[in-house]
Amino acid sequence: MADEKIFLVEGEIIEKREKKPFSKKVRAKTAGFAAEKALCFFGSKNKLKRNRIMIKETKEVKENA
Hints:
Order of helices and strands: EEHE
Structural class: alpha+beta
Shape: elongated
Mean pLDDT: 90
CATH class: Alpha Beta
Strand order of the largest sheet: 2-1-3
Number of domains: 1
CATH topology: Ubiquitin-like (UB roll)
Largest sheet: 3 strands, antiparallel
């Protein structure tokens, strides 16, 4: 998967009426796919629905950062 890049996805999750910030590094081809992977990750691990996950920013980072 040489054409994949690393993206930093930042946002907030809402649990029990509290907003909790998160940042997650994700390997994907585009920023849109990176955001989708982050949604899938938090949905499966934390049992959150997509309307409880707010993505604020998705940016590409260097491999060694």
